[in-house]
Amino acid sequence: MSSSPVARGAHLLLSLLLCGAGALGFLPPCYGATEETPGYVTVSAASFKPGSICSAPDPAAAPPRNGTSAVLRLTHRHGPCAPSRASSLAAPSVADTLRADQRRAEYILRRVSGSGAEPQLLGSSKASASVPASWGYDIGTLNYVVTASLGTPGVAQTLQVDTGSDLSWVQCKPCADGSSCYSQKDPLFDPSQSSSYAAVPCGGSACAALGMYASGCSASQCGYVVSYGDGSNTTGVYSSDTLTLSPTDAVQGFLFGCGHAQTGLFTGIDGLIGLGRLQVSLVGQTAAAYGGSFSYCLPTKPSTTGYLALGGSGGGGGATAQGFATTQLLPSPSAPTYYIVMLTGISVGGQQLSVPPSEFAGGTVVDTGTVVTRLPPSAYAALRAAFRSGVAPYGYPPAPPNGILDTCYNFAGYGTVTLPTVALTFSSGATLTLGADGILSFGCLAFAPSGSDGGMAILGNVQQRSFEVRIDGTSVGFKPSSC
User: Fold this and answer.
1) Contact 274, 280 (CB under 8 A)
2) Cis omega (within 30 of 0) for bond into 153
3) How far apart (Å, rounded) are the C-alpha atoms in residues 137 and 144?
């Protein structure tokens, strides 16, 4: 139960008076309240800065996961936990990241408002496999990557993880011309060097199943094309080969795009793993082995790690038995790729916002590729007003807006930062109570308005950090403090 405004105000006034006395030399100096009050969270200001030393444990020392045959690290491609072979190319600026993020969000909203066929939903859990995942700047946004091996013998590939797309692909030799392959630190995948590689022929069932990703035929080989929300695209030959997820988990005959011409913001990564709802995704192709379920935990910062797991999760049993708060997965006939749930309410500082349920009626896309969460305009305005009101007593200096982020602060000189908590509640009562790293990003409130009232929202990856997010054919589960 949250404290009353009077009690909270008295606590904040006392904290500010003590800090002021410290600044005058009467008491030891302090930088904001260090004692948490109900509905607030206090963290070190240094926690918002990326660490320079990898603090992740050795994967071999990680506790075993029920039904999972392999656990692989997920790391930031530019951070200290990244493997030595990862890209050393410079990350895009914050401004470029947010511009690309806005293009992706607008693209998702356009697709969801369009028309399409019913998704091919996936089945129940069977076995499991885990893949290492990394946090990287990919396709122009702040996203996450895994490392897997492709071909025989296997060649390591650094691949972006994307729940908002289906078809997986890697950049391949030969390039269509000198400018058709973007820069990546790893060598291009050479299909001629893999004894298990085969191009998918035209006229076969695999080629016919490409649907919206089909791009005709050339020399009897099936072509593919994928266009992304930020304007990037890849095209090439639809192919099959062995995808090795771990020393004990390999997907024989894995279907993927062998990309010979790419444009856009892919620089640095070797390709992409699609985790969407259609059968061409990695989840769909491995449903017979892993039951069509998967989970992931996105790390909070580049100096920590997370994971991607196909199939079973820690603890055994269903999502509820494993400590997950679950919400229903909704059908998405107009955009069958996306995982959509129903947001029903938001609280700030322990107080529920006065936002009618109709404001969220359009549903919410759970997306690893979108950075900051998008809300219908009226819901965002209520969140922003409550957050600003909760922060105001601490006197943090405002900072200029940062692109799409309009509520920013300058925390320079503060040892700690105290924020009102933010919690997102979904149907069936599943609630995500966000940590400070899920509330702020780039020094700003990590939410933005998008679309229209009653329209679609998007749960971005900032708000998913440190939660294990488990998705199967009927539900989405959230388990806090999982990485």
Assistant:
1) yes
2) yes
3) 7
Give CA–CA dist 217/213, Å, rounded. 12
Tokens of 186: 């790893």
Task: Clarify whether 249 is annotated catalytic.
Answer: no
- Interacting residues of 450 by C-beta distance below 8 A, sequence separation 6+: 105, 106, 109, 374, 375, 376, 377, 457, 458
Question: Residue 229 to residues 91, 97, 105, 449, 476: CA-CA distances in angstroms?
Answer: 19, 13, 7, 18, 24
Q: Would you state the structure tokens that stand for residue 255, as one six-digit string?
A: 């279907």
- Give me the phi and psi of 142, to 5 degrees please: -85, 95
pLDDT band of 68, cuts 50, 70, 90: very low
* pLDDT at 30 (0 to 100): 36
CB-based burial of residue 115 (10 Å sphere; 0-12 exposed, 13-18 middle, 19+ buried)?
exposed
Give me the amino acid identity at 57: P
For residues 412 and 29, which has the higher predicted lDDT (pLDDT)? 412
The token duo for 467 is 């939660």
**Positive or negative CA dihedral for 164, 128, 435, 453?**
positive
Instruction: Please pick, among 101, 162, 437, 472, the residue that the annotation labels catalytic.
Output: 162
Rounded distance between C-alpha atoms, residue 460 and residue 457, angstroms: 9
171 three-state secondary structure: strand
Residue 253 has pLDDT above 70, yes or no: yes
Q: Of 350, 367, 363, which is closest to residue 113 (Cα–Cα)?
A: 363
- Of the residues 186, 270, 367, 472, which is catalytic? 367
pLDDT single digits (tens) 71-127? 566 666 666 776 554 445 566 678 878 888 888 898 898 888 773 333 232 333 344
Between CA 364 and CA 261 the distance in angstroms is: 33
Residue 190 bears catalytic tag: no
